[in-house]
Amino acid sequence: MKQPVPRLAAIHDLSGFGRSSLTIILPVLSTMGVQVCPLPTALLSTHTGGFEDYYFLDLTSHMQPIADHWKKLGVQFDAVYSGFLGSPDQVEIVRRFIDEFRSDGREQLIMVDPVLGDDGELYGPFDREMVREMRRLTEKADIITPNTTEAAMLLDRKFLEVSSIEECKNTLLRLSELGPKMLVLTSVRLEDKPDVSNVLAYDREDGRFWKVDCDYVPAIYPGTGDLFASVLAGSLMQGDSLPIAIERSVQFVSMAIRATFGYRVPHRDGVLFERVLASLNQALTSSSYQVLP
Q: Would the pTM of this model clear 0.90, i.e. be above it?
């Protein structure tokens, strides 16, 4: 029987303070009418961006028993969404989770945000083994959302700060060969406008490429990637097309950043998305996505 409220398993860490991961995913997707079932990978007192001496509790040994209990209960998921994973062991648990909860004959979305690094560098705790394991995880995904650094790492390519449209299209095609049918490439800087961030995407099923420009605000906040991916997942689960889902995600993140920028709040606290959360229930009144030739 179809569930009255779609259900998503969110495999992410939980930070008690600072807006990131599950503290973003839960309210955003709940607002969009999705039941979120968190499978926490770690418990932190704060997120790791800008805070020192934070408390960290690794929950790797607890992840499989939680999944086993859900399986015993017969819990079914309309979507599985994974983000930051702290070790190859956690990647393997997520691979197993996807296999164990794969639906038979029912539509299901598997989304992987392959969190590995940024600005051309791996995040501190990661090494090449983690890149290899994350590559194996993307094989099981329907959609992945790497930034340009993570895309280069997954493909074992040199990171380019600025790219051409054709280079990005080639990257998306190569990523699709790993397995996913939808690819969303974030934080793209193009040669004609290197100061503007873009999102480029490819849908293998219809062979089309898409581009959405992002408004520029001179500020960097943690958690905006989680915000983008959460809205993207919710939009796709609501039946939006890939370009509309990207458009909604970009517009919401831009709105949240602008709502925050006017206040004197520490950037490490994240964006004040709570002030614009209700906008997720409003119809998209305009769109500017482009179909790339």
A: yes
